[in-house]
Amino acid sequence: MANSVGMANTVTRPVLSMVGIYSALLLVALATAGLAHWPPAEPHTSTVLALAMLGLALYGVRRDPNGPDGYGIALGGLLLSDNRSEGTSKKLGIVRALREFGVAVGVSIAVLLPATYLYRWWWGLEGSFQLDLSGIHPSVILGQWVVIAIPEEVFFRGFVQTRLEQHWSPRHRVLGVTISWPALLIQSGLFALIHLAHDPDLRRLAVFLPGLLFGWVRSWRGGVGAAAWVHAICNICAGLWATGWPHG
Questions:
Q1: CA distance 207 to 189
Q2: Mapped to the 3 state alphabet, what secondary structure does 190-237 carry?
Q3: CA–CA distance from 173 to each of 4, 72, 86, 216 (Å)?
Q4: 187-226 pLDDT per residue, tens
Q5: How far apart are CA 181 and CA 43, in angstroms?
Q6: In angstroms, rounded to a whole number, what is the distance separating the alpha carbons of residues 199 and 32?
């Protein structure tokens, strides 16, 4: 009996530790939501939250013997499709990074049409769509990737999803990828909750669905690199949709 209890504690410890770290991030999100009402601080609240995600994720993996590689957030997982960053030549690394970007573009194209209709339905948009690319330039793309997508993917698909998979092992096949349904659903729910805490509008819970997509891509590729690019592309498309449809 004692051995069984000890084994149970060992299995649940990674999840309990993750919950504690997530709770700290939730407090940061609530604090930044409050600071958003103070004009001098408002432009910096998203950056503060992003830094908290990166810092807390790295804090969470610091004692894990697998290190950042095991969470898909080291160089080998951030830009490449495997967890081996050592011994990789620069040329090969660039090729693999480009491959992950190509994967992200392919996934984004595949989901573009249904995502467009879901976005329009969720936000109750009507009228004709007018594409406006004037606000899309390199700094916007880089900002979406570096400031928003990478921190969120490192924390939720890298740290949180991996910790959940240590408790609920991946054993289900979805579109050829082995996933853990509990891990996928819970990480996406926590992802949506952070968005709601940072911006208290119930419609922000809509990020639950793309969170499932990002988690599936992370499981497929073994790192968060492709998922981060899909995330950035989705955010850019959402910006185009928001400006392209008239709001009542």
A1: 9
A2: HHHHHHHHHCCCHHHHHHHHHHHHHHHHHHHHCCCHHHHHHHHHHHHH
A3: 30, 20, 30, 10
A4: 999 999 999 999 999 999 999 999 999 999 999 999 999 9
A5: 36
A6: 9
